[in-house]
């Protein structure tokens, strides 16, 4: 097997590589597809698809950090720093998320307000997962004065 492939493939796939890729002198020989080479190609294709899906899921998980969710869903009213100094925040007379009144609430209370809404604030229980809401609460905790 070419040394470039040897370290790049998991051991389960190494045995499945078609014989056409095995070392035969300085250059590998390529032959017509056989049932064994087709099966190996299908296995490699499936493994590639699994890796791609895993990377996509991981990327979406990282994108859902508390700061990202806050920026996407909360900052229009509460502002980038949580002070509520946006046009909407001023009209609604929002208190700063760094204020003692907000920071003294429990995580469960902050999560309930985020999930169920309060006054003019909409509920986010159908728009955000419990994990995203917990991440936003953690982010709100970082806004302390």
Would you kindly provide a written description of the structure presented here, covering whatever features stand out?
The chain is mainly α and 145 residues long. It folds into two domains: 3-62; 66-141, Cytochrome c-like domain (Cytochrome Bc1 Complex, Chain D, domain 2). Helix content is 55%, strand content 0%. The chain is built from nine helices and no strands. It has helices at 3-6, 11-14, 35-63, 66-73, 75-78, 87-91, 100-103, 107-116, 130-141. Helix 4 (66-73) crosses helix 9 (130-141). The longest helix is centred in the middle third of the chain and has 29 residues, at 35-63. 13% of the residues are buried. The model has no long low-confidence stretch (mean pLDDT 80).
Structural class: mainly alpha
Low-confidence stretches: none
Terminal Cα span: 61 Å
CATH topology of the largest domain: Cytochrome Bc1 Complex, Chain D, domain 2
- What characteristic shape results from the CA principal axes? elongated
Indicate the CATH class of the largest domain.
Answer: Mainly Alpha
Put simply, the count of helices is 9
Order of helices and strands: HHHHHHHHH
Gyration radius, in Å: 27 Å
């Amino acid at each position: 097997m070419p040394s470039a492939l040897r370290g790049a493939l998991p051991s389960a796939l190494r045995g499945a590589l078609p014989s056409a890729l095995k070392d035969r002198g300085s250059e590998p020989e390529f032959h017509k597809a056989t049932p064994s080479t087709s099966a190996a190609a299908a296995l490699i294709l499936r493994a590639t698809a699994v890796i791609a899906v895993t990377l996509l899921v991981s990327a979406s998980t990282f994108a859902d950090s508390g700061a990202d969710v806050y920026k996407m869903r909360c900052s229009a009213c509460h502002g980038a720093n949580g002070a509520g100094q946006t046009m909407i925040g001023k009209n609604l007379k929002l208190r700063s998320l760094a204020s003692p009144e907000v920071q003294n609430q429990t995580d469960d209370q902050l999560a309930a307000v985020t999930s169920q809404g309060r006054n003019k604030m909409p509920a986010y229980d159908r728009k955000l997962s419990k994990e995203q809401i917990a991440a936003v609460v953690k982010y709100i905790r970082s806004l302390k004065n």
